[in-house]
């Protein structure tokens, strides 16, 4: 077990679970720490997907709880305003739009934003989860290829 999840793997997994970095930060970190591209991809994708289903299942109840308190309502409203900026893509293209929202490695996109947008649009959990998982897998491929390209580009100058 320790060879499967060493310190670098565990840290990569944790970083990929965070709403700001997600796998976009975790995967380059893993590569910089010497993990193989395949292992870096798998650990980052797994960590990025892990919080999605609990969030999808608990978001409705969590939002009702948060809005009861001033600071909770402020945080929830701030988060929802950010997600609403990406809502049009999903509203227009549905399942495919949610995949694209999650897959494109830009700020304020990713699994966490995809989860919030699917909540705003009242998407069925099974469809939202499937789209988010596909999007995370695609984002992982994009980030992996970009990271490997940058690493090789840097080697030219060293």
Automatic annotation (TrEMBL):
Bilayer-crossing regions: 49-71, 92-121, 127-151
Alphabetized UniProt keyword annotations: Membrane, Transmembrane, Transmembrane helix
Entry-linked InterPro entries: Sm_multidrug_ex
Pfam families: Sm_multidrug_ex (PF06695)
Origin: domain of life: Bacteria
Keyword Metal-binding: no
PANTHER family the record matches: TRANSPORT PROTEIN-RELATED (PTHR36007)
Name of the protein this chain belongs to: Ligand-binding protein SH3
Record organism: Aerophobetes bacterium
